[in-house]
Amino acid sequence: MIAVLSPAKTLNLEPVKTKTTQPRMLEKAEALVSELKTRTAADLQEMMHISEKLAELNRDRYQSFSTPFKKSNAKPAIHTFKGDVYLGLDAETLSEEDVDFAQKHLRMLSGLYGVLRPRDLMQAYRLEMGTKLPNAAGKDLYAFWGDEITERLQKDLRAVKSKVLLNLASQEYFKSVRPAQLKGRVLNIHFKEDRNGQLKVISFNAKKARGSMARLMIQERITDPELLKGLVVDDYVYREGLSSEDDWLFVK
Questions:
Q1: What is the pLDDT of residue 220?
Q2: Distance (Å, whole) CA 63 – CA 77
C-alpha cells in the first residue's frame, strides 16, 4: 500500500541532518521553473491569487532555483512541508527507521515536482496543482503532468508489490492522478464530525487527521488496508455502515 498526501504552502527551511534522495521528476520541474522565471511578480500575483509580498518572495525563489540539489541548497520534502496535514504527520518526531518505511509507502503530490518521496530534496516554491499555467501540453498543470504522475505511482506500487493506493490528498491534488489507468484499487478516506446529529467536514481537523493516519500507518508498518479500520485517528473512528468498498468514513 502507498499513501498519497497533498503538499503544503507553509515551508520550514531550517536544515536537518538526515539521509536524502533526488526527486525523480526533476527535469519536468526544471521545465516549469524555466517558464516561471520569465514571469514578473505581478504575473505571479495574478496567476496564483496571492499577495504582492508572496508574489515577490516566490519570484525570488524561482530566480534562485538551481540544480543539482544538495543539502546546502535543498531539504527533504518530509521535513520541509508544514501546515495542517503535516501537524498530524509530525515528521520531526519520526525515527530514521520510520522515515525509511515512509520512503517506500508515502508520497507527496506536488504542482512543481510531480511526486515526491519523503527523503527527496526540494527547494522552496509555491505552485498549487490547480494553477492555470499555460504550457505546451495545455492550459494548466493537470495538462502539463498528463499521465506522468499516475505512471510514477504505478511504478511505486509495483515496487512494493501492492495494488492499493490510499488517497489522503485533497481533491485539487488527487485530480492529477488518473485512477482508471492504475492497475489497482484507490481507497479514499474521509473524516467527518458529528455536530448535533449532522456529519460535517471540519477542515483543519480533517486535514490534520490525514497526516495523523499517514503517521500511524508509518509507525505501525501497516501495508494491509484492512488494518486501517482499527485505527483511532485523532478521535475519528471507522464507521462501516457509512462506508462503501472504496470510500471509507471515519467519524468523530
A1: 98
A2: 20
Model confidence over 203-248: pLDDT tens digits? 999 999 999 999 999 999 999 999 999 999 999 999 999 999 999 9
Three-state SS letters, 20-38? CECCCCHHHHHHHHHHHCC
Classify residue 115 as left (phi > 0), alpha (psi -120 to 50) or beta: beta
What is the three-class DSSP state of 179? helix
d(CA 23, CA 80): 14
Alpha-carbon 250 to chain mean position = 20
CA 174 to chain centre: 9
Nearest partner of 106 among 57, 196, 167, judged by Cα: 167
Amino acid at 145: W
Chain centre to alpha carbon of residue 83: 12
pTM across the whole model: 0.95
Instruction: Identify which of 155, 128, 156 has the alpha carbon closest to the alpha carbon of residue 142.
Output: 128
